[in-house]
Amino acid sequence: MRTQRRIRLVFLILLAVLVLPVIIPLPPVGVDAAALADPGGTFMTVSGLSTYVLAAGPADGVPVLLLHGWGASTFTWRENQSALAEAGYRAIAFDRPPYGLSAKTGDNIPYSPGALADFTAQVMDALHIDSAILIGQSQGGGVIGHFAVKYPARVRALVFVSAALRPTDDPSPPNDGGRAGGALGIPPVVTSLLNFPPFARWAQIGIRAFVTPDFAARILRGAYYDPAFMTPEAAEGYSRQLRVVGWDEALLHQLRGGVFQTEPISAAQIAAIDAPTMIVWGEADTWVPITVGERLRELLPEAVYVTYENAGHLPHEEAAAAFNRDLLDFLAENTLSST
Question: Which is the CATH superfamily of the domain at 33-166+263-334?
Answer without folding.
Answer: Alpha/Beta hydrolase fold, catalytic domain (3.40.50.1820)
